Amino acid sequence: MDIKFFNPARKILNFFSTDLAIDLGTANTLVFITDQGIVLNEPSVVAVKNGTNEVLAAGKAAKEMLGKTPDSIIVERPLREGVIANFELTQSMLRYFIKAVNKHKSTIIPPRMVIGVPSGITQVELRAVKEAAKQAGAREVHIILEPMAAAIGAGLPIHEPKGSMIVDIGGGTTEVAVITLKGGIFGRSVRIGGDEMDRAIVSYVKRKYNLLIGEKTAEQVKIKIGSVLIDHDIEYMDVKGRDLITGVPKTITLSSSEVHESLLETIENILDVIRLALENTPPEVSSDLVDNGIMLAGGGALLKGIGKLISKETGLPVSIAENPLLCVVLGAGKVLENIEFYKDALMI
Length: 348
Prior knowledge:
Strand content: 25-35%
CATH class of the largest domain: Alpha Beta
Oligomer: single chain
Largest sheet: 5 strands, mixed
Radius of gyration: 21 Å
Distance between the termini: 24 Å
CATH topology of the largest domain: Nucleotidyltransferase, domain 5
CATH architecture of the largest domain: 2-Layer Sandwich
Structural class: alpha+beta
Mean pLDDT: 90
């Protein structure tokens, strides 16, 4: 059970500010507020006037504009592979989201923020995250590694002297970590995730059918008929795109076995990282994993067959978190509510 620490001065500060836990993800940004829970879950997409950082839309509204805007409007995903690719747009997007969650509340004191970041983040990228948060209005910024936050959010006993393994397959990165006593015994982040799977589907369709489809369409294909195992009835989906030979719109029918084929290389890369983590885990902790198994989190945990495949390749039981898409922000939220207890789990 978590131990709560009472700090009167901090209690007063918190009363006058809306403190936030943020999962600043490649695919989606989620915001958690103490005593309210998750108040925002939006695509990490922003639309601005060309040549400016004036935000016209962000989140779902901006994502709907992708590939459909005139030259006067730029729509971008400012985070790539789990880190900030465009500092100014990330800052603008953060400001927009923070304003959205505070629209009915007057914030007297700037908020504290707990932000999840990939474990493979560089010092330069880390400074960019902190600076973006401060420029977006934070008075205090705490950083937690995404696999640690995901483990907390998934309910793993990270504070106990027993090993737990988390595999968080996000949009831009896959995080693998073995954790005990609020510390990581082994952690590895690879910049491969759901986006890489989408690109693999785009490439496969282009190569096999001379048809160009967008990453948004590829994502829909992955969600609807994507699978890493062919142990069920074959499913089909009509896919629309532009014929690269004639230049006109065209529709083809993709099968789940074709999508499986397109994803093989990406999935194998994820399996390699899991194997590496297991090879670098001390024997005593490895024995814990035989009983506790592997916990899957992130959007990639919802890919059909992924749990079965990882269990087959490792020989360990595999579980999928109750809310895999929410694990990082829920974990960061728990840390926000009890920073003293979780201070050893924070980077800074």
